[in-house]
Task: inverse folding
């Protein structure tokens, strides 16, 4: 089998001339940061997902940190989340001195399983952080009803799911707060960037304050004069720039087209791969429409004898950028040192051991998709 000329990454941005122009326009304007584009971008994202408010951050991780902070997570507090995610999800809990508690996944969707959430609830549980893994929304109704029952805050990690649907509505307004990431591999990009959407004015105001050093205009400061402000909380400088917000606005116009292109690629993968014995294809619940950030397969090793590592290496040798998402978070040495034990979430660990992510991004050509399919057929047979 012939090696591809160019390495095909598992994910990549799509930047066009309009995007470039949008950024250049800001570079020529008076405000490079803290200007008008930020609020325009925030309103556009809030409108797009159907939420009342949005607060943009330097990146998705900072946005998650903000959400955990304004949710009041601190020492003694436990936050239930999934091990099949990027470490940033539970790291945000650690930033606030809280304790992440990992609940196992649903083997069909690879998203956190609400039954497993219930098993992990204690008197110290403060919040739940579901992840819309690969772009398929988590079981939000069930998670929100658990949250209501136990008075918990739900912070949804929607890094993969901007534009995805849950029961006919876009994600971003069901949870108390939802984070979206704008890293280049994510649904739209601002290079680095992230946002929290929420329907709560209280969270909205606290997030804005947290993003900018914990500074606010209080009735007292207003009475002092226009120059006066008060720092009433310990915040950070987590502000997005106007260049990034302008890029984000321009990208948002193309999001639906990007999602359409991703779904077309999914169709091609599904049609070509479903007949290969031993491949488990990604499963979609009828009530969700994924944003298809990732397309992952599982290798059923009862049928496919070749180890995943060898398949991975042979695909890479053909210049096909397969990947694996994700190493269960608590397997990382940092978490192991904190006392988390391997074996805690067997379904997640089993999934990790047989998962393989195929390249998936809107700019992939038909040829690219065919290259992946042919390479996989070759490597597996
Ligand atoms: C990308 C990602 C993040 C972090 O977003 P950044 O913008 O890269 O900081 C968090 N959670 C998940 C699931 C992600 O994929």
Result:
């Amino acid at each position: 089998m012939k090696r591809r000329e160019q390495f095909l990454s598992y994910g990549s941005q799509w930047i066009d001339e309009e995007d470039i122009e949008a950024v250049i326009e800001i570079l020529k304007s008076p405000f490079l940061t803290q200007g008008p584009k930020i609020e325009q971008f925030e309103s556009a994202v809030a409108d797009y997902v159907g939420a009342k408010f949005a607060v943009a951050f330097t990146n998705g991780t900072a946005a998650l940190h903000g959400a955990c902070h304004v949710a009041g997570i601190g020492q003694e507090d436990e936050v239930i989340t999934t091990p099949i995610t990027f470490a940033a999800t539970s790291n945000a809990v650690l930033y606030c001195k809280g304790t992440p508690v990992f609940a196992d996944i649903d083997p069909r969707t690879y998203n956190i399983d609400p039954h497993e959430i219930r098993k992990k609830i204690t008197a110290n549980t403060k919040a739940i952080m579901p992840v819309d893994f690969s772009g398929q929304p988590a079981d939000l109704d069930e998670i929100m009803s658990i949250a209501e029952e136990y008075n918990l805050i739900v912070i949804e990690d929607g890094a993969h799911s901007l534009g995805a649907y849950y029961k006919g509505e876009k994600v971003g307004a069901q949870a108390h707060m939802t984070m979206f990431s704008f890293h280049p591999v994510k649904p739209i990009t601002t290079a680095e960037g992230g946002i929290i959407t929420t329907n709560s004015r209280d969270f909205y105001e606290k997030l804005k304050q947290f993003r900018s050093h914990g500074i606010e205009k209080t009735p007292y400061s207003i009475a002092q004069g226009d120059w006066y402000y008060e720092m009433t909380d310990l915040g950070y400088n987590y502000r997005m720039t106007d260049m990034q917000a302008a890029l984000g606005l321009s990208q948002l116009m193309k999001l639906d087209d990007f999602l359409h292109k991703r779904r077309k690629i999914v169709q091609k993968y599904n049609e070509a791969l479903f007949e290969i014995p031993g491949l488990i294809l990604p499963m979609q619940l009828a009530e969700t429409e994924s944003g298809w950030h990732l397309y992952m397969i599982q290798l059923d090793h009862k049928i496919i004898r070749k180890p995943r590592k060898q398949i991975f290496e042979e695909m890479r040798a053909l210049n096909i950028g397969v990947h694996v998402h994700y190493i269960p978070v608590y397997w990382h040495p940092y978490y192991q040192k904190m006392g988390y034990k391997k074996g805690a979430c067997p379904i997640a660990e089993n999934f990790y051991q047989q998962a393989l992510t195929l390249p998936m991004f809107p700019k992939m050509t038909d040829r690219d998709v065919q290259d992946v399919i042919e390479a996989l057929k070759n490597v597996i047979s």
